[in-house]
């Protein structure tokens, strides 16, 4: 049996970055806000993102920054321009968390950790009166679009003048986002693009020698090319294929090619800062009396898996001359057979189709219900663009909810519902 709870002005479903920044903006505007999250604590994926250093955003010029959203740029650009990387850094500073720009242009908290920022953020939300209820699953909407939740004491209906859904995608489901919202919204007529892995490794059938000897080895200062697009950066050999930022940046195109053709060829350049002629000249001067791996080391400082990678793509006789070896170093073909599964991806592609939303992120088929974050059909590479997008969409959803409340008549309370107080759970 559904039980009733207190009247709330705005209910936010999901305690990740998008949901929490929406809660803060709404509370600062004087609204009463309750956040519901299915996990024992909020911000779990945010903390995981900071495990190796929390990359909040990027310092590159905004005109370049907004191009990182690919096919969704036209839709995401105004949201990012309304809450920019500079705005995100100012927000951190206001919480007492200074940031810095790393050598790559990425922006980090000075401590590099996510936990101090999350603690300061939750303290600020508490000061603003935001109520957080953990261990609460969102299980649907009433006929007039109020959220239904299941908490430790059973199911109940949250009395909200507006609802913001910030339930995340489906990557790393053990941290909270499992995509369970898809059938609920699809059942209410919301168009949803299939959830797919984004910023995920690619699968390559390495030879046993390379897999067993070099899995876990980094590849630094390389370039990867696919479908005419080249990305410089780093990657790591995994037992299953390749991981890393340079791989992730090409993920959308690879994913589409795999779906269309069943396979793809990724080209690896081990020395993108040199031409083939320069490489051949160095190899020629190194002589031919030594073994190929030693010549690579002495002439080009290529060690570790370099020669094994070359042998993945070429027969030994095709590497016999300096010119042939140089050409191979610039273009090792790697046959990609798949993308790592969604539960191993950093983020999620697909989600609520953008044409199912109004410009203020309200679901057209569900008046009074807004959505933000990874639930929406956009994706971006790692490097700060993902978190910036989540923050920007959360701010936009809060702005939309404020507009909806100010222009809509207040919905009547259910008979017998209390006017104030906390959730009875």
Question: With helices defined by DSSP (H or I, 4 residues minimum), what is the helix count?
Answer: 15
Helix content: 25-40%
Q: What is the radius of gyration?
A: 25 Å
Please provide the count of β strands: 18
Share of β-strand residues: 15-25%
- Helix-strand makeup class: alpha+beta
How would you sum up the major sheet? 7 strands, mixed
Distance between the termini: 14 Å
Uncertain regions: pLDDT < 50 for 5+ in a row?
A: 1-7, 409-425
Give the overall pLDDT as a whole number: 91
Write the layout of secondary structure elements.
Blueprint: E1 3-13, H1 17-28, E2 33-36, H2 44-49, E3 57-58, H3 62-65, H4 73-82, H5 85-94, E4 99-101, E5 106-109, H6 115-127, E6 131-133, E7 137-141, E8 147-151, E9 154-165, H7 181-186, E10 192-198, E11 202-204, H8 208-214, E12 218-226, E13 229-238, E14 241-243, H9 245-248, H10 251-261, E15 264-269, H11 276-285, H12 292-300, H13 306-313, H14 322-330, E16 332-339, E17 347-352, E18 369-371, H15 385-407
Helix pairs in contact: 1-15, 4-15, 11-12, 11-14
Overall description:
The chain has 15 helices and 18 strands. It is elongated and about 80 Å long. Helix content is 33%, strand content 24%. The strands form four sheets. Strands 1, 2, 6, 7, 8, 9 and 18 form a seven-stranded mixed β-sheet that branches.
């Amino acid at each position: 049996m559904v039980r009733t709870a207190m009247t709330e002005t705005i209910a936010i479903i999901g305690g990740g970055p998008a949901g929490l920044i929406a809660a803060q903006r709404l509370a600062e505007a004087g609204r009463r806000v309750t956040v519901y999250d299915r996990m024992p604590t909020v911000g779990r994926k945010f903390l995981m993102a900071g495990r190796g250093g929390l990359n909040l955003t990027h310092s590159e010029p905004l005109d370049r920054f907004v191009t990182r959203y690919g096919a969704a740029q036209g839709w995401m650009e105004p949201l990012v321009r309304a809450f920019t990387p500079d705005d995100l850094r100012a927000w951190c500073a206001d919480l007492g968390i200074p940031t810095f720009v790393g050598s790559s242009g990425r922006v980090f908290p000075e401590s590099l950790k996510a936990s101090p920022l999350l603690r300061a953020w939750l303290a600020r939300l508490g000061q603003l009166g935001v109520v957080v209820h953990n261990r609460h699953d969102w299980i649907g909407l009433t006929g007039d679009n109020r959220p239904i939740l299941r908490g430790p004491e059973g199911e109940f209906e949250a009395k909200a003048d507006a609802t913001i859904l910030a339930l995340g995608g489906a990557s790393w489901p053990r941290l909270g986002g499992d995509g369970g919202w898809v059938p609920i919204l699809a059942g209410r007529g919301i168009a949803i693009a299939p959830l797919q892995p984004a910023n995920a490794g690619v699968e390559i059938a390495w030879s046993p020698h390379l897999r067993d000897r070099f899995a876990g080895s980094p590849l630094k200062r390389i370039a990867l090319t696919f479908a005419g697009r080249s990305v410089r950066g780093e990657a790591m050999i995994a037992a299953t294929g390749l991981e890393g930022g340079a791989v992730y940046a090409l993920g959308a195109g690879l994913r589409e090619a795999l779906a269309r053709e069943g396979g793809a060829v990724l080209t690896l350049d081990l020395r993108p800062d040199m031409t083939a002629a320069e490489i051949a000249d160095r190899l020629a001067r190194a002589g031919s009396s030594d073994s190929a791996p030693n010549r690579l080391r002495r002439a080009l400082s290529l060690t570790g898996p370099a020669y094994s990678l070359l042998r993945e793509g070429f027969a030994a006789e095709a590497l016999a001359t300096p010119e042939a070896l140089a050409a191979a170093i610039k273009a090792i073909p790697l046959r990609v057979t798949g993308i790592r599964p969604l539960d191993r991806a950093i983020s999620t592609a697909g989600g609520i189709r953008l044409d199912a939303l109004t410009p203020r992120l309200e679901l057209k088929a569900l008046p009074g219900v807004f959505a933000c974050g990874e639930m929406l059909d956009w994706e971006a590479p790692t490097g700060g663009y993902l978190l910036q997008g989540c923050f920007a969409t959360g701010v936009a959803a809060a702005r939309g909810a404020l507009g909806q409340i100010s222009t809509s008549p207040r919905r009547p309370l259910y008979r017998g519902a209390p006017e104030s107080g906390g959730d009875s759970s």
